[in-house]
Amino acid sequence: MKKRIKAHISSQLDAAEVPVTKPKDSSFGHFCTPVAFSLAKVYRKSPHAIAEELCEKLLHGELFDKVEHLSGYVNFTLSDRFLDEFATAALRDGDRFGEQSEGESILLEFVSANPTGPLHIGHARGAIFGDVLMRLGRHLGYQITSEYYINDAGNQVDLLARSLHFKGRAELLGEAVAFPPECYQGEYILELAKKAQAHFGEAIFQPEADLSALRDWAKDEMMAWINDTLKEAGIVFDRFVSERSLYDRWDDTRQALEKRGALYTDEAGKVWLASSQKGDGKDRVVVRESGEPTYLAGDIIYHGDKFARGFDRYINIWGADHHGYIPRVRAAIDFLGYDPERLEVLLSQMVALLKGGDPYKMSKRSGNFVTMEEVGQEVGYDALRFVFLTKRADTHLEFDIDLLSKEDSSNPIYYVNYAHARICSLFEKSEHAHSDMAEVHLSDLGHDAKELLFSAMLLPEVIDDAFHTRQVNLMTDYLYKLAGKVHRFYTENRVVGNEKEAQFLKILAVSALSIRLGLKLLGITAKERM
RNA sequence: GUCCCGGUAGCUCAGUCGGAUAGAGCGUAGGUUUCCUAAACCUAAGGCCACAGGUUCGAACCCUGUCCGGGACACCA
Which of A175, A202, A263, A530 falls 20 to 30 Å from A473 in CA-CA distance? Predict the structure, then answer.
């Protein structure tokens, strides 16, 4: 909608880019532009005089009812006819309302949690953020592939195997072994050890047992668990990439890097990536003295692999604690001959959970953190999604789990769902059917009705903004405000039996569409009845 | 020390590309239902936008510096 307005104004003004925004006060109109202020300098006239001239130029055509100027601003009011046509089109589009065909291909990597323990609440945030970004992007026509990188090589998974081994010896075989402090704690280790015993027999806990078999088995078990959790949350990945599986390509990658002078070997025999040449704070080890590659080596192969697949853009969602890692990966991409600008790393910040004002209890099962599973079961993923998405992913989030158990306006998901359910109930009560709405034409709408309709039709702009700025909170803000307008309208206007019943229903139908579709893009199913 | 995120109402946070009188929810105090779902609505109180400079027609927003809080700075992943 805004694009059409903008194009219209630009063409009338013969200017390339005209800023179009929403007025502070809705009584001024639907859109406004402060362009007279910047033109004032060019033409050496007062903003007021320029705004006045613009008004006359712009009033032609069927788009606007009113074009007025006020203290330098030019305010536009859309015509009923334009709003009506747009509403009919929106209802016809249904779930495809606001779809576009951008066409760029994007590889979106997120979660990528180590398969050494259950997902915690911080992972949940990144997972939901990534999932929603994907849904929004796909709606806009981006071809998005989602990927989970499994860190199934290196010390962490070895440590998982050792943890199980110790736990098995100590708890299941009753040996007096001291549990090393670096090992994973938490009851899930014992549960998994029991499972291992059932699977392998007691031999797996013998001192000389083959830990690599235990490791591979345990890693698969953990991934299955992680996957179950994600599935429950409605998150599905297109691909999983195993770090371990990449290492047979290390030699090729190494040669490619060497050819570009990216690597050097020190006296001790360690191989370094000269990442400081490409903006990193210092060089990084990629092969240890032992000849074993570091984690970075795997990530270099992985990113080389990603870029070789030829996507237009790459997005990684990482926990904020990895932010220092960005320059070295960018450097490696650069060394491999790819454009590091195509990689965008979004950071998902920490989550602090409270319950009744106090820090949420640590989970016994996980050892020292709250799991995604527990919170998902306690508050439900619809509520969890909505709350996580109300804040930008890159800022700290603190929230109280008790808020999500309340069933009133302090719980935003209820508020939004209730607005949707109310509209559904009106359609049940009314003689008019949803399918009749295209035949209904809007005219002589009051300010409130017009305002609600206008808000409801802004969904495409919001989807666009939310995706391109990566600020998914714009969606939740919008839905919450739209729901508020629905509630207000409902309170102030008796719909069924009203002489404008059909018209009101059409407006509410568009509102319900935007709420339902908006929630759908957040991975939430709108309630039709509460 | 370096880097990242933040500091806006009692609390949790919005604030678009710099634009009109800085907004919402919770909480607090009051009010609204013979009527489509009161899980709602309305009203009120509540602000040195951390601080100091700068940029300009205009700054919560951009720049510089300072203070405070959280996090990261591995041959772990």
Answer: A530
For B22, which residue's CA is nearest its C1'? A24
The number of distinct structural domains making up chain A is: 4
| CA-to-C1' span, A24 to B47 (A) | 19
Nucleotide nearest to A403 (CA to C1'): B26
Q: Which nucleotide is nearest to A394 (CA to C1')?
A: B5
Same domain, A134 and A230: yes
Span A357-416, pLDDT tens digits: 677 765 666 666 788 998 888 888 998 899 888 888 888 887 778 777 766 666 788 899
End position of a domain, from candidates A318, A348, A378: A348
A368, A477: one domain: no
Q: Are residues A30 and A120 in the same domain?
A: no
Backbone angles phi, psi at A140, to 5 degrees: -85, 0
Distance from CA(A414) to C1'(B24), angstroms, rounded: 16
Residue nearest to nucleotide B39 (CA to C1'): A408
Protein residue at shortest CA distance from C1' of B35: A494
Backbone angles phi, psi at A185, to 5 degrees: -100, -175
CA–C1' gap, A49 and B4, in angstroms: 47
Positions of chain B reached by protein Cβ under 7 A? 2-6, 12-17, 19-21, 23-27, 35-42, 57, 69-77
A318 and A393 inside one domain: no
Question: Which of A310, A515, A323 lies closest to A422 in space, CA to CA?
Answer: A515
DSSP secondary structure string, A295-335?
A: HHHHHHHHHHHHHHTT-SEEEEEEEGGGGGGHHHHHHHHHH
Residue A458: which CATH number? 1.10.730.10
Q: Is residue A95 part of a domain?
A: no
Is A111 inside any structural domain?
no
Contacts of A25 (CB under 8 A, 6+ apart): none
Q: How far is the CA of A485 from the C1' of B30 (A)?
A: 23
Task: Note whether residue A185 is domain-resident.
Answer: yes
What confidence tens digit (pLDDT) does each residue in A306-354 have?
999 999 999 999 988 888 899 999 999 999 999 998 999 998 887 888 7
Question: Alpha-carbon distance A394 to A171, whole Å?
Answer: 42
Amino acid A38 CA to nucleotide B63 C1' distance, rounded Å: 21
Domain holding A182: CATH number?
3.40.50.620
Do A374 and A289 fall within a single domain?
A: no
Q: Which CATH number is A64's domain given?
A: 3.30.1360.70
> Is the Cα torsion angle A195, A200, A204, A209 positive or negative in sign?
negative
